């Protein structure tokens, strides 16, 4: 019987220093019992970053680099930001379509500013969830955590009057904080929307799982505006917290990224030994 194949894909527009660390972590991904191939969409402005992608190789894996399709630059800042969100979501969906065309058994979508634990893809595959993201905490410019890459989907506040809208927002904020606090405990949790670092199996791809504009986003960020959603209602979305990815926001995070790579390599063959909550 042929081994199953997982496609690891990423749209890349990244500083060379961050990209080097990202590619190191990709090359270290374990794949006992299945095959890993890679696909990148080269959206770089840096020639050094372009060269790093072009030269990325791993024995036993196929590596595909596709060119980005860049539109005309918008002058307005908001228009430029929205155009970028649309473009990146399109790249992610392009990777999903490529995985389907080449008959991969799953695709793992990851952003190029994340550092992954070597056991991550193997572990997510073993959960047997159709769509599951690994947790990471985004960082702000000040270096503080600005939230997880998984969310509850909140309805928009009613427009009846300001008092009701304020009460609704207070309750929505309470639920949002409660969900984020829950993610600090090791386990698998159902979510309303997922951002990056997401494993999608063949069945979920076939049923129409794509990056689309979020229904009722609670805030206007890239991952909220374009998040994973299923084309049918029978594919639940999950977030796992066993092997959190390391997010590189700026150069100051690179030393921590290298520490993460070194420490994770010391424990690559064992699944977490922490007490886990019941899955599902």
What do these coordinates show?
There is one protein chain. This protein is of the alpha/beta class and 280 residues long. Helix content is 34%, strand content 24%. The protein contains eight helices and 16 strands. The model is unreliable at 268-280 (pLDDT under 50).
How would you describe this structure in keywords?
280 residues, alpha/beta, two-stranded antiparallel sheet, 16 strands, 24% strand, disordered C terminus
Put the structure in a nutshell.
This protein is an alpha/beta fold and 280 residues long. It is built from 8 helices and 16 strands.
Major sheet: order of its strands? 3-2-1-4-12-6-15-10
**Number of E-type strands:** 16
Q: From the structure provided, what is the oligomeric state, counting identical versus distinct chains?
A: single chain
- What radius of gyration results from the CA coordinates? 19 Å
What is the overall shape?
Answer: globular
Return the average pLDDT rounded to an integer: 82
Distance between the termini: 30 Å
Tally of individual helices: 8
Describe the biggest sheet?
8 strands, mixed
């Amino acid at each position: 019987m042929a081994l199953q194949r997982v496609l690891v894909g990423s749209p890349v527009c990244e500083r060379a220093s961050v990209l080097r660390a990202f590619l190191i972590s990709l090359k270290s991904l374990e794949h006992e019992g299945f095959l890993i191939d890679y696909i990148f969409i080269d959206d770089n402005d840096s020639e050094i970053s372009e060269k790093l992608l072009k030269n990325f190789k791993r024995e036993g894996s196929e590596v595909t680099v596709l060119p980005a399709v860049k539109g005309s630059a918008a002058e307005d800042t908001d228009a430029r930001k929205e155009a970028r969100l649309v473009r990146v979501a399109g790249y992610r969906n392009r990777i999903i379509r490529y995985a389907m065309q080449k008959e991969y058994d799953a695709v793992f979508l990851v952003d190029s500013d994340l550092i992954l634990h070597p056991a991550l893809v193997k572990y997510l595959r073993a959960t047997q969830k159709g769509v599951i993201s690994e947790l990471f905490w985004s960082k702000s410019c000040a270096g503080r955590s600005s939230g997880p890459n998984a969310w509850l989907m909140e309805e928009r506040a009613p427009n009846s009057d300001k008092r009701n809208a304020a009460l609704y927002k207070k309750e929505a904020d309470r639920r949002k904080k409660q969900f984020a606090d829950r993610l600090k405990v090791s386990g698998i949790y159902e979510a309303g929307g997922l951002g990056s670092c997401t494993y999608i199996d063949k069945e979920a791809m076939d049923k129409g799982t794509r990056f689309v504009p979020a229904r009722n986003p609670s805030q206007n960020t890239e991952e909220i505006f374009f998040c994973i959603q299923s084309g049918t209602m029978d594919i639940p979305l999950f977030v796992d917290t066993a092997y959190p990815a390391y997010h590189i926001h700026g150069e100051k995070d690179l030393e921590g990224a290298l520490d993460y790579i070194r420490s994770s390599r010391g424990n690559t063959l064992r699944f977490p030994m922490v007490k886990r909550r019941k899955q599902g």
